[in-house]
From TrEMBL:
<feature type="domain" description="Thioredoxin">
    <location>
        <begin position="61"/>
        <end position="106"/>
    </location>
</feature>
<dbReference type="Pfam" id="PF00085">
    <property type="entry name" value="Thioredoxin"/>
</dbReference>
<dbReference type="InterPro" id="IPR013766">
    <property type="entry name" value="Thioredoxin_domain"/>
</dbReference>
<dbReference type="InterPro" id="IPR036249">
    <property type="entry name" value="Thioredoxin-like_sf"/>
</dbReference>
<protein>
    <submittedName>
        <fullName>Putative periplasmic thioredoxin</fullName>
    </submittedName>
</protein>
Length: 199
């Protein structure tokens, strides 16, 4: 019981959740295979996301690992990890696409840019209305039925969701299809290289 309480207390401090009513993630317009959606980067430029049979790829960068990071400008762990995610992306830009999807809030692009400059988030950040539908599809794809919390990440390669390390329960042999809450970027980097078989 003590172990559970300790884990619960730590978990509360390392993730952010929304006070909003949980949305029905099954009531969205599901993506069809081959369908595309364009996301604009608040730093400039855009990327076209393509629906595969079971996941997503970035058009023109299909050979790269794709990480979607659900974040919020209000979220303390998102702020703390932002510069480390920037480093992860810079060090692996030839084989990694990192896309931050603003979630749980309605803010201007200027507010997201302010977050980026203040906390060093210089990777691709989308503040698009399409984020909500994309996130709903991702959560549906991985059968995630728990309360959404931030930060939240998934890793895909060649259009398939990848099993990642469970930081909070390393003995979990089955692994997970997502990172929930604040996890060391070194762990994400290790999983990235395992997926690419280049450790």
């Amino acid at each position: 019981m003590r172990k559970f309480l300790a884990f619960f207390c730590v978990f509360v401090f390392i993730s952010c959740s929304s006070d909003e009513k949980m949305q029905d993630d099954f009531a969205f317009d599901k993506f069809k295979e081959g369908e595309t959606v364009v996301l604009d980067n608040v730093h400039g430029g855009s990327k076209t996301i393509v629906r595969t049979q079971n996941g997503f790829v970035v058009q023109g960068e299909e050979d790269k690992v794709l990480i979607f990071d659900f974040f919020g400008t209000f979220c303390p762990p998102c702020k703390e990890e932002a510069p480390f995610l920037t480093d992860l992306w810079k060090e692996n830009s030839s084989k990694l696409v990192l896309i931050g999807l603003d979630h749980f809030e309605e803010v201007s692009d200027d507010e997201v840019r302010k977050f980026a400059h203040e906390f060093g988030a210089y990777y691709f950040l989308s503040n698009s209305p399409n984020n909500k539908r994309l996130i709903a599809q991702i959560l549906h794809d991985i059968d995630y039925a728990n309360m959404e919390q931030l930060p939240f990440k998934v890793m895909l390669y060649k259009g398939e969701y990848q099993t990642v390390s469970d930081y909070y329960r390393p003995e979990n042999e089955k692994g997970l299809k997502y990172y929930l809450g604040s996890v060391p970027v070194s762990l994400i980097n290790s999983d990235l290289h395992k997926v690419l078989n280049d450790e």
